[in-house]
Amino acid sequence: MTAESESARAAAPAAFKRTELQHFPSPNPGWEIAQSLVEIPEGIASGRHNHPGPEVGYIVRGDVAMEFDERPTLTLHTGDPFMIPPGVIHNARNIGGVTTMMLSTFVFDDTQPLTTLFDE
Asked: Is the pTM of this model over 0.90?
C-alpha cells in the first residue's frame, strides 16, 4: 500500500455498518429471522428507515438517540433493550463519545427487503 492510499483510507469518513451474524427460517412459514451487529461511529446516524417486521435490540456499547417520525425520541444507553414495531420509520443517531454497538434481531416476511431507506 502506498503512502498516498494509506492517507486516503485514513481520511475516509466513518460509516454506519450492519454485519449479519446469523440468518435462518422462522418456525412460521414465509418468515425469516436475522441477527446483526450494528456499529454507528461517533456523530453518525443510520438514516431514516423501517423494517417489515419487528426489530428487537440491545445496546452493547454507547449512546443512541432513536428518532421516530411519529413519536418522541428514545434515548438509549449501554445495557438498554429496545423494540421497534413493524413499519415504524426510525433513525439511530450516535450521541455518545464511542462507536455505538447494537445487537439487533429482525423477524421479517421473506418476500420483503429487511430494510427500506427513506430520504432525510
From this structure: no
Name the residue with cell 439487533.
104
CB atoms within 10 A of CB 76: 21
Measured distance CA(10)–CA(66) in Å, rounded: 29
Report which DSSP code applies to 45: B
17-50 burial code (b ≥16 CB/10 A, e <16): ebeeeeeeeeeeeeebbbbbebbbbeebbbebeb
Q: How many structural domains are present in the chain?
A: 1
User: What is the domain range of residue 103?
Assistant: 16-117
How many Cα atoms within 13 Å fall on the side-chain side of residue 33?
9
CATH assignment at residue 94 = 2.60.120.10
- Predicted confidence band of residue 14 (pLDDT cuts 50, 70, 90): confident
